[in-house]
Amino acid sequence: MVWFRKKEVMSKTEKAIITLLQQKEVFMDVEDIFLQLNPGCKRYSYAAVYHSVRTLNQKGAIVSEVRPFERRKYFRINVAWSARTLE
Question: What is the arithmetic mean of pLDDT over 64-87?
Answer without folding.
Answer: 77
